[in-house]
Amino acid sequence: MASRKTSSKSKKTKAINMDEILELLHEHAETGFIHTSYRDETKRFRYLINGDKSAIRDSINIMEPTIQGTLSKDPLRNMRYLFIVNTGLATRYLIEEGIPQETVYSISDIYIQKADVAKTIDEIRELNKEVWTIFVETVREHKKENQYSRHILECLNYIDSHFNEKITLELLAEKVNLNPSYLATLFRKETGNTLGTYLMNIRIKASQALLTRTDYSYSQIAYSMGFCSQSHFTAAFRKISGLTPKEYRVKYFNKSISISLPSSD
After folding, report:
1. Least packed by Cβ within 10 Å: which of 15, 139, 149, 216?
2. Which of these, 56, 62, 192, 108, lies nearest to 100 by C-alpha position?
3. pLDDT higher than threshold 80 for residue 241
4. pLDDT for residue 201 is more than 50
5. CATH classification code of 150-252
């Protein structure tokens, strides 16, 4: 038994040592390779948080191994790693800038999942362009609105994570330590909507995504979005979108990205 333990310990991955680091430094010196400077990286992300479309153009450099370095000997895997690392960095900058974190993480997660199953380098390059375009558009849209105060941003982050649950003004007021009446006034002033209207819009947008991307039944969608009945869901959906859920699905259902799910209807 003792010999087995010794054997398993010897198989553990060893930490890199200084010789390995010096070897890589020598290799870079021989080839003339130099990583992108911190100043250049910062400039790119400053473009991003300012909603400047130059960030999309500069994001092409993010996907260049000759500039960014080698994270894997396999070219496709290396490109995938570069995409994941830099998409992750972008999300941090956007969250620090005040974009609701669940919105940013959702965009990031979707595109990282797409990159994970991408078959070619060109496909990942295209995904990189797409995600940076969406990031910039998200920033520009955010800047059109009033800058949210800390209390309202906390409320929006909570709503993004729990919009399918029962959310009351009293609940949010308790979480941000404000008087409910004052929070109601502040929320409407900064978002342009009452809590009820804002929450309903979020639920309908999420429902639209489910209607066009999945085979969930109408009742499943209704209850998963927190509606008390399918009829209530249908009425609210028609009021906001101008279509019934069935009409919306027929018109916009995307077979190429749909997910089949069990139906209870």
Report:
1. 15
2. 108
3. yes
4. yes
5. 1.10.10.60
Residues forming beta bridges with residue 11, ordered by sequence position: none
As a whole number, the mean pLDDT across the chain is 79
214, β-bridge pairs: 259
- For 24, 81, 101, 254, the CA distances from 85, given in Å and listed in that order, are 20, 6, 17, 30
Q: Which residue has the tokens 């999942």?
A: 113
**Mean pLDDT, residues 152-163:** 86
What is the Cα–Cα distance from 66 to 23, expressed in whole angstroms? Answer: 18
Residue tagged 């990205």 (tokens): 257
* Long-range contacts of the stretch 126-130 (C-beta < 8 A, 24+): 127/83, 128/59, 128/60, 128/62, 128/63, 128/83, 128/86, 128/87, 129/56, 129/59, 129/60
Q: What is the pLDDT of residue 179?
A: 96
Is the per-residue pLDDT at 100 higher than 80? yes
Residue 24, exposed/middle/buried by CB under 10 A (0-12, 13-18, 19+)?
Answer: middle
Q: CA 85 to CA 112: how far, in whole Å?
A: 10
Does the pLDDT value for residue 9 go beyond 50?
A: no
Instruction: Give 179's contacts (C-beta < 8 A, 6+ positions apart).
Output: 173
Q: What is the pLDDT of residue 120?
A: 93
Domain ranges of the chain: 34-144, 150-252
| Phi then psi dihedrals of residue 262, to 5 deg | -65, 140
